[in-house]
Amino acid sequence: MSFSQEVWQRNLALYEKTLALPFNQELAQGTLNKDVFSHYVIQDAHYLLAYGRALAVCAAKAFSAEDVMQFSDAARIAIVVERSLHADFMQEFDISQEEFRTTPLTLACHHYTSFLTATAWSESYPVVLASLLPCFWIYAEVGNAIVAHSVPNNPYQAWIDTYSGEEFNQAVRNVIATIDSVAARCDADTLEKMHHAYTTAAKLEWLFWDSAYDQRQWLGLDN
User: Fold this and answer.
1) CATH number at residue 61
2) Total structural domains in the chain?
3) What range does the domain containing 60 cover?
4) Taking residues 57-73, what's their average pLDDT?
5) Residue 101 predicted with pLDDT over 90
């Protein structure tokens, strides 16, 4: 069994809970509150910058020239292409650049980005890869799962089409192939660290969407 097959099976129940979140189910039906989605878009745009940085560190640690190019390109795409999608949503949902700039990271976004950044700088290339995989893979799986259930004229169709689209899914398949190739050369201790990193990030994916649905802040703290 490959690493990707094993890690998916270990975390299948967590993925199913993520797919079942009200945020994702209501997004598919087009009934998600627009204020909730606006909150999510702002936080996700903040998240993407940190994710792009972590991908860049991953590229610097990569074992081969091909992997350096793969994750350098991924870092650019995370910031340029997906931020373009968010820019369109910000315009559509009347989110000003000032509102985005002055909105701080929520607890969930801060926790997730801090985990990715710390892992990128402190861990080995295989473990960094594992920590970055859920953001690729879970988004693709959620997009593929809900695209068939999306209602006509869904205000969130662009989001669904992006993550269910062939371009994004091919990128996900490429990352999975890379991590399986890397994992095949790892010892047992490194593999367990990879599993732990993946599961932690997958839990933070669940938390990010759950927190966004409730527009959860820092427990009433002002600053």
Assistant:
1) 1.20.910.10
2) 1
3) 3-213
4) 93
5) no
